[in-house]
Amino acid sequence: MTIATLALAACASAGGSDYSVGPGVANYDNLKAATDKCAADGGTLTLKDGYEKSDLSSWVCKMGGAK
Predict the structure, then answer these.
(1) Can you list the positions of beta strands (E) in 1-67?
(2) How many CB atoms lie within 10 A of CB 39?
(3) Which of 2, 30, 58, 60 has its CA 20 to 30 A from that of 44?
């Protein structure tokens, strides 16, 4: 498979739905990686309402560029 095919397969499997970033500490490096991945998937990384910004699981990738 080519890289483009793999990327399309990953997008198809995600179904275009919002997704949580995952567990961990929301430091610069982790947020940068999550932001880059989210943008590559066509979304925008945002903090969930009322959640602690230092916890990586408090962040969600909103698909479609919604803020």
Answers:
(1) 19-20, 43-47, 59-63
(2) 13
(3) 2
Q: How far apart are CA 14 and CA 16, in angstroms?
A: 5
Q: Please report where in the chains the tokens 């970033």 appear, as a residue.
A: 21
Tens digits of residue pLDDT in 10-30: 444 455 799 999 899 999 999
Report yes or no: 18 and 63 within 8 Å, Cβ to Cβ.
Answer: yes
Taking the C-alpha atoms of residue 58 and residue 49, their distance in angstroms, rounded to an integer, is 9
- Amino acid type, 67: K
Residue 58 in tokens:
């408090």
Count of domains forming the chain = 1
